[in-house]
Amino acid sequence: MRPSPGRLCRGARTVPRGAAGTEPTQQALLELMRDSKLSDEDRNAAGLALIRNKHPAVSSAHALEGMLDDARWAQYAVLGLGTFARLFGEARLVEERERIGKLLVARLAAVRSATDRSDVFSGLSNSGYAGMLPAVRPYLDDADETNRVAAVEAIRLVHDPEVERIAIRKLSDDAGAVRMAALLVAGNLEPTPPLVQAVSKSVLHDQNSDVRQQSLRLLVTWSEHAPELRATIKKVAESNSSEPIRGAAQLALRAPP
């Protein structure tokens, strides 16, 4: 017997993140999303369960594409498609990854509102799609700080040599929020000498305490495999103007190298 909508809704609200992995389950969630007789809470729960699943079906991606121009579901669709693109790539469904990546890039060029643009950047941020770089570059130096932050965050999962160069350059951006975004990107990269030098400069000299603190966290993580970084951490422990940051550095130094 087919489960009742109420039972399915209760199930959608309790689906663990990533558990909606079968195509029939995903189709059932799509049906719940489309059922206007259900409450917004139930429909939203179904949408979240769908876009958070770890094994998306190609049919689910096509269904989300059909929702991109639906004001009710556009945000869910663009975020889910970004995640699906990355997961398709990991599953070696390269054509699907490329198709969705290109769709998101085209949507970035087409949207006009700041809200829609922010949503597309978030979708791209989930995707790791390297083909976004030409479309994102103009926003990296946009006059609007919000666009610069979103553009930097969008490349956080991209595997391309240009990403490190962007992260290093944006660690010198005028806006602290952009520098924080650059550190987010740096945290996903290998600690090459130029990147380590840039982050070390931030931890020692940035005027923003949040940036210094996040830079310290990154150096501490890297120091597990690069003990020579403890010298920089020691400088922070001795001379940083922020007592919490000094304390965090001192605590890190107590751990064995």
Provide a descriptive summary of the structure in words.
The longest helix is centred in the first third of the chain and has 17 residues, at 74-90. Residues 1-12 have low confidence and may be disordered. Helix 13 (209-223) packs antiparallel against helix 14 (230-239). The protein has 257 residues and is an all-alpha fold. It has helices at 5-14, 23-34, 40-51, 58-65, 74-90, 94-110, 114-127, 133-140, 145-154, 161-170, 176-186, 193-205, 209-223, 230-239, 243-254. The protein has 15 helices and no strands. The radius of gyration is 21 Å and the shape is elongated.
TL;DR?
By secondary structure, the protein is mostly helical. Helix content is 70%, strand content 0%. The protein has 15 helices and no strands.
Percent of residues in helices comes to: 55-70%
Question: Secondary-structure element order, as H and E?
Answer: HHHHHHHHHHHHHHH
Pick out the low-confidence regions.
1-12
Class inferred from helices and paired strands: mainly alpha
Question: Span between N and C termini?
Answer: 60 Å
Radius of gyration: 21 Å
Largest sheet entry: none
- Beta percentage is under 5%
Mean pLDDT: 92
**Number of DSSP helices?**
15
Strand tally: 0
The rough form would be described as: elongated
